[in-house]
Amino acid sequence: MTTKTRTRRRGKGSIQDYATKSGVRWRFQIRVPIDPEDPDLGDKKYSRGGFTTAADADDAMQEALRKKKSQERFSGKVPKLGPYAENWVAGLDLADSTVKGYRKLISNHITPYMGQIDLDKLTATRIARHYQELKKSGRKDEGHKGEPLSPNTVHKTHVVLGAILDAAIEDGHISMNPAKKRNIVKAPRAKEIKAARPEAATWDADELRTALTWLRDKRKDEHFALWQVFAFTGMRRSEALALRWKDINTKTQRISIRRAVNTVDWSKTKTVKTGSPRVIDIDEETLKAVSKYKIARAELSFSLVKPDAFVFADENGLIRSPDAVTSLWARRVLWLIDAYPDMERVNIKGLRHAHATLLLELGVHPKVVQERLGHSTITTTMNIYSHVTPTMQRSAVEGFANHVSSG
Asked: Are 56 and 125 in contact (CB under 8 A)?
């Protein structure tokens, strides 16, 4: 095995290539203080190898030189990305669903590809190549394995990896974050994410009316009130399942959305997604559907309609599983399509989308729609429902023309 010095700069370290069974690899070597706080102790050699290109080795060497210049202490063994990422996510104090999402991104899109790389050997060029691999063949889900990963998921992976490497800086393992070298690392931008996002399947007003009328009058669906609430409030699945009877004010015709089901442990509730409760108005028909449902619940047991009882609980008064409710709806959609073959299959979130889309098409101000849906900003609302914008513009133009002409 031979070693040949490719680059050597006085006082700046050296880069060498060397042969391995896997091919040529590169290492760098610099001299660093034994103790930055005690210069009299002299220097020691500091070397790292295993880089696939001279450029990667040089990036790592420049990082080490910056660390030396800032008089940081060079520790012993640097952890690998995979184990470090697991420790990082285990220490997060965030919502269970958020942590679960981070774990999924790490286990699917970070650790299998780069988990065995030492933190101080992870370079911007390696990260950039990884994102390109994800874009080409990063999907892991059944039936789509090896297909391109969506720009949105690649972006989420980039955010998580960036946070992990920020923590590694704080822990003294690296001195700069290679994921933030924007001239090299090209994570998907908002425009690309938006362009690739599929339009949510939903129903127009006639289709929604047909579906709900059929469920109520033909199927006599015991869960009809729940479907009505989804469609006529735009509430999230987890929010509707966490409603208590005391949250519904029949006099003011308003619902207070104060909590949501914890989708990781659905026997518990948590704060709503934005952290801020909201109050929304409900129409007369929805209130009637809920009132009729309440009578049916009381016939089962008065305990099911106490102020603190969950509105859409199971027969024992316990929170229903969100996944079970999704399955209930999916089954009803199949029945519906048997009766109306031209109807599109719409998932339970499609009822929320129908609510928002129809309001915007009616010319309701986006701010009102944002408040009903519980989005943190109006930008979120408009990004999701940008497909409605042409209709809004047409209505605005025609309304303006009619107003001026009639004047």
From this structure: yes
CA 111/CA 325 separation, integer angstroms: 33
Q: What is the pLDDT of residues 360-406, one digit of tens each?
A: 888 888 899 999 999 988 888 887 776 665 666 666 667 667 767 76
Question: How many CB atoms within 10 Å of residue 178?
Answer: 25
Cα–Cα nearest to 349, from 237, 213, 258 = 237
Residue 313 and residue 284: Cα distance in Å, rounded? 23
Q: Where are the domains of the chain?
A: 1-74, 77-198, 205-398
**Helix-strand-coil split of the chain, %, nearest 5:** 55, 15, 35
pTM above 0.70, yes or no: no
Across all residues in the chain, what is the average pLDDT? 88
Q: Please provide the DSSP assignment of 326-394 as one string.
A: HHHHHHHHHHHHHH-TTSPP--HHHHHHHHHHHHHHTT--HHHHHHHHT-SSHHHHHHHTGGGHHHHHH
- Give the number of other CB atoms < 10 A from CB of residue 158: 22
The CATH number of the structural domain formed by 1-74 is 3.30.160
Local structure of residue 117 (DSSP, 8 states): S
Q: Which CATH superfamily is domain 77-198 in?
A: Tyrosine recombinase, N-terminal domain (1.10.150.130)
Q: DSSP assignment, residue 118?
A: B
Of the pLDDT bands very low, low, confident and very high (cuts 50, 70, 90), residue 196 is confident
Cβ neighbours of residue 201 closer than 8 Å, sequence gap 6 or more: 344, 345, 346, 347, 350, 353
More confident residue, 134 or 144: 134
In DSSP terms, which residues pair with 350 in a beta bridge?
none
Q: Under CATH, domain 205-398 is a member of which superfamily?
A: Intergrase catalytic core (1.10.443.10)
Neighbours of 113 (CB within 10 A): 18
